[in-house]
Design brief:
Four Helix Bundle (Hemerythrin (Met), subunit A); 79% helix; 140 residues; mainly alpha; elongated; 5 helices
Length: 140
């Protein structure tokens, strides 16, 4: 496995996170400029944004939760040279599920399919961690 092959799913996940960040920022500025939201109403992180702005913000914040474990695992697999085709396949599945979760979150925002995508991604990531832990334990 090349480093580029291993990091490509990470790059896609990072691009997704930044895309949501920039969309959230754009919507926040637009709602303040339009007068829909007053700065005093959100200055202390009160959730007084418009529903659409909150929807995008929640999608962004979700990318700072579960994916952190994915980033750490990817770094550890690189350091320990444990990345293989199984890791790579699971990494792409995880990222595809994160993309699906974000897409649902910013479009229909239907909770059931969004939850399914979230839980499936969590399960894939848990399997990735389990495989990694067992490999490291068996090597030492």
């Amino acid at each position: 496995m090349s480093v580029m092959e291993i990091l490509l799913p990470v790059f896609v996940q990072v691009v997704l996170t930044f895309a949501l960040l920039f969309r959230m920022g754009y919507l926040r500025v637009a709602t303040i400029r339009s007068g829909e939201v007053k700065i005093r109403d959100i200055a202390l992180r009160e959730p007084n944004w418009t529903p659409r702005t909150l929807q995008i913000a929640n999608a962004f914040h979700n990318q700072l939760e579960l994916p952190m474990l994915f980033y750490v695992l990817t770094i550890l697999t690189l350091i320990t040279r444990q990345a293989d085709i199984v890791f790579l396949a699971l990494a792409w599945i995880f990222v595809a599920l994160r993309l699906a979760h974000a897409w649902i979150h910013v479009t229909s925002n239907r909770v059931r399919p969004r939850a399914v995508a979230f839980m499936a991604g969590g399960l894939v990531l848990a399997v990735m961690w389990l495989i990694f832990m067992l490999r490291v334990i068996w090597v030492h």
